Amino acid sequence: MAPLVPGPAGAQDDTVFATQSQIRQLDRRLERIERVLDSSAMNELLQVSESLNRDLREMRGEVETLRHEVNRLSTRQRDQFRHLDERVAAVEGGAVVADDGASEEVVQLDLPEADEQAAYQDAFDDLMSGDYTTAIRKLERFIEDYPDGNFAANAWYWLAEAKYASGEFDAALEDFERLREDFPESDKSGDALLKIGYSHYELENFDEAREALEAVRADYGGTTLDRLARERLRRIDEAQ
After folding, report:
1. Which of 10, 151, 207, 228 suits a disulfide with 120, CB 3.0-4.6 Å?
2. 3-class secondary-structure state, position 39
3. 214 vs 197: CA distance, rounded Å
4. For residue 62, how far is the Cα from the chain centroid?
5. Residue 101 is inside which H or E element, if any?
């Protein structure tokens, strides 16, 4: 059997060089992936996703509230019908039915009208499809028609978002501020504060942007809003 002869040193060097080259290529690919994941676009997408999740949770909560209210009203209606039957039977039997002056409670539910909900959904669908011009027009009309409606706060927020996405940062800033002034208890208030900081950043009003973003960090520490605010503050530091 012929003895094993080690390969030439040059072949080993080529193998090491090729391996190092592959490692560098993988490092570069990894850096590109990290930049994409850390990009503003991904942050924006994450923020919109969380906002939509909040909307979904709100709607589920409203459904549960309405279901409870319907059950309560159904029970009350049955009781009222039974009471009415008893009164009618008493009258038919010749008994005197005392009128104690009590009036039945009139229950009014704060429910969105079907037209209101349909108009909001129509505008929202245009926004999600990227037709910002149409969405802006429909949301402005919605706010005119339902200024105090159940979806008014959300309509102001998405109107501002549509303008922001269209590059109308001054107009977006005005609407985000309007939302926080008119609907301070809205679940969209925190998102609007973050976008106030973003809008100032785009307008290169860095002092105002920093003030808004620091307020986000103070009010929403440990949340995604806080993380997005920190990321934009870092970009402000780099720009100045």
Report:
1. 151
2. coil
3. 9
4. 16
5. none
Amino acid at 83: H
pTM: 0.58
Q: Where are the alpha helices (DSSP H) in the chain?
A: 9-37, 40-92, 114-128, 132-145, 152-165, 169-182, 189-202, 206-219, 224-239
CA 74 – CA 149 distance, rounded (Å): 26
Dig out the tokens for 80 from the structure.
């009222």
Strands (E) across 130-203 are located at none
pLDDT tens digits for range 89-145: 554 455 444 444 444 444 444 444 678 999 999 999 999 999 999 999 999 999 999
**What residue has token string 């303008």?**
163
Task: Using CB atoms within 10 Å of the CB of residue 209, give its burial: 0 to 12 exposed, 13 to 18 middle, 19+ buried.
Answer: buried
Q: Write the single-letter amino acid at 1.
A: M
Report the Cα–Cα distance between both ends of the chain, in Å, rounded. Answer: 74
- Kindly give the parts of the chain with pLDDT less than 70: 1-22, 24-47, 49-50, 53-113
Q: Which helix (H) or strand (E) holds 59?
A: helix 40-92
Which residues have C-beta within 8 Å of that of residue 54, sequence separation ≥ 6?
Answer: 187
